[in-house]
Write a structure and sequence with these properties.
five-stranded mixed β-sheet, 23% strand, alpha+beta, eight-stranded mixed β-sheet
């Protein structure tokens, strides 16, 4: 039996579109606030009731709309943001599809009141198809959405509790506030402020907004950075490995000020943390990528959460390389000389210096400043050798050793307080970094031929990937030949990986290449072996060190990349400031 093809009514078309655009109240808030940002708003106020289901009101001080614009704003595929394919290929606005407002209006009771900037009259419209009427309103626009999903009860049943929906709204507004520091954001429920964040251009105030929206601990444990190369610019805050999370709840990535979720970027970030993150933990970051709009496609999904990079490999390598360098360069910060440090109040108001002046330090401390570790290891763990005397006017960042505790921890006095070092963990990282450098210098291109080549069945696409990356594999000591359209043969592997599961290693490499266009799986496998070697070759617990050896270890920590974490992601040292120590003993109260 044949069935006739009928044109769908506009209301049904909009409700189908709403299924993609309007997932929950937070989706509505996102679309309305993005419209406000596109209208050049500098202040956005959001009021909600019952988790947004009963009421969502978004008011802005943007450009506003005139009488003729209001009906078009509720018409499907009507927009002021793109007019041609060329505009679509270089989109800079947050919205551009012309779907959000008609979709929202089809599943709620929506009204708009707006006054165009520079005009004396405001206009109000109640839903699609209504005629605009005069109204009283300041310059800007207010959109009210009431009774979400009132006419689609099946959709309403999928909503969660008011508290859960409010949480989603708060997270969504936080993302927008992190993207636009130049705009003030206020989120209220039943008249109570949930978010109150005035606009700012001051760098310190920006960090303050991040601290309020994420947590003060994030800013305290994050590194601010900025890097630009190859037409790309990446900046923001990257959390130290010691601030890792059990969930990916503090990961924010923005492309041209648009919050996105991208597997390629996530993979690049994970690789940058691979050598310093504790197993199963998630990094925390707020990152901003600026790229020519022509090189990124934001028209992938109606929600615009996903993007597609035209030069994905370039973006991946840029993000990975930048963050890898930032994390490697995290070293103990230099501190002012004790003589120049501010004084603190001691017991009974007595003023005491923050640290013992160097000239009064024991002779062993001064002697230790004349020791340094040579680049090549010898029989002793740290190999102290005489060197030129250091500047007496300044303590090193990690100070000088005081003692060893239970053969496990090193205690040192620094200008800022007390330094505690896990001896084994710190020496493990130092040894590991030296092994990696030695491998790169001497062993990096040496492969170990296999007595019997290992055949691996693959898809034709994977065989093509192997052929395309044959030179890259060979540079790392992996030799792969193609026997036929669906069979590869591994003839050599890096010498250090002898005994590894060759077939599994190759499949993992090809999987990374297929999904991300890049892989560091081989390098990671080599690093795992080097890490094990470093662990077994490092100072064990209860090994008694001399004062010279302890001070040499401190200097090595200061010089070594990624020395804040051991090979397994555990912290290697921490600092207790004088203020923290005073608090422990109730001094100055």
């Amino acid at each position: 039996m044949s069935r006739r093809i009928n044109a769908l009514p506009n209301q049904l078309i909009n409700q189908i579109a709403a299924g993609e655009v309007v997932e929950r109240p937070a989706s509505v808030i996102k679309e309305l606030v993005e419209n406000a940002l596109d209208a050049e708003a500098t202040r956005v106020e959001i009021d909600i009731e019952q988790g947004g289901v009963k009421l969502m009101r978004v008011r802005d001080d943007g450009l506003g709309m005139d009488r003729d614009d209001l009906p078009l704003a509720l018409a499907r595929h009507a927009t002021s943001k793109v007019a041609s394919l060329e505009d679509l290929e270089r989109v800079r606005s947050m919205g551009f599809r012309g779907e959000a407002l008609p979709s929202v209006a089809s599943v709620s009771r929506l009204s708009i009141t707006s006054r165009e900037r520079g005009t004396a009259r405001a206009w109000h419209i109640e839903g699609a198809g209504a005629a605009p009427a005069p109204a009283a309103h300041p310059e800007g626009t207010t959109v009210e959405v009431r009774d979400l999903f009132y006419n689609t009860p099946a959709r309403r049943k999928f909503l969660r509790t008011d508290k859960t929906e409010t949480g989603h709204i708060e997270l969504g507004v936080s993302r927008l506030a992190l993207a636009r520091f130049d705009v003030g954001f206020w989120l209220r429920q039943h008249g109570r402020d949930i978010i109150a964040s005035p606009a700012t251009t001051d760098p310190a105030a920006r960090a303050g907004r991040v601290a309020r929206l994420l947590s003060p601990a994030f800013i305290e444990q994050a590194v601010a950075f900025e890097h630009e190369a190859a037409g790309l610019r990446l900046h923001g805050w990257v959390g130290l490995p010691s601030y890792s999370r059990s969930q990916a709840d503090q990961q924010f990535f923005f492309v041209n000020r648009r919050a996105v979720r991208d597997r390629l970027v996530t993979h690049a970030v994970r690789q940058a943390y691979q050598d310093v993150l504790y197993h199963g933990r998630q990094p925390a970051y707020v990152l901003y990528l600026e790229i020519d709009p022509v090189l990124v496609d934001v028209n992938v999904h109606p929600t615009k959460h996903e993007v597609r990079f035209r030069e994905g490999r370039l973006v991946h390598d840029f993000v990975f390389g930048t963050l890898h360098r930032v994390l490697a360069d995290v070293r103990p910060a230099a501190v002012p000389a004790p003589a120049a440090a501010p004084e603190r109040a001691g017991a009974a108001g007595v003023q005491a210096p923050m640290a013992l002046p160097l000239r009064e330090a024991p002779a062993a401390y001064a002697a230790a400043r004349r020791w340094q570790t040579p680049p090549e290891p010898s029989r002793t763990p740290f190999s102290p050798t005489p060197a030129a005397a250091a500047d007496e006017a300044e303590l090193p960042p990690l100070g000088f050793a005081l003692a060893q505790l239970h053969g496990v921890y090193l205690l040192a006095q620094a200008a800022a307080g007390l330094i505690l070092v896990d001896i084994h963990a710190a020496h493990e990282r130092i040894t590991y970094e030296r092994l990696k450098q030695a491998w790169d210098r001497t062993e990096g291109i040496r492969g170990q031929p296999l007595l019997v080549p290992v055949p691996v069945k693959v898809s034709r696409r994977e065989a093509g990937l192997a052929a395309a990356h044959a030179e890259t594999f060979a540079a790392l000591g992996l030799e792969v030949d193609q026997l036929d359209q669906e069979t590869l043969a591994v003839r050599a592997i890096p010498a250090i990986l002898r005994g590894a599961d060759v077939e599994r290693l190759l499949r993992d490499l090809l999987s990374d290449l297929a999904v991300h266009g890049d892989t560091r799986r081989l390098r990671e496998a080599i690093n795992e072996v080097l890490s094990t070697m470093a662990c077994h070759g490092s100072v064990r617990a209860n090994r008694r060190l001399t004062l010279d050896e302890m001070n040499a270890l401190l200097r090595d920590i200061e010089r070594t990349e990624r020395a804040g974490q051991c090979n397994h992601g555990r912290p290697t040292w921490t600092r207790l400031s004088m203020a923290e120590l005073d608090k422990l003993f109730l001094r100055g109260r």
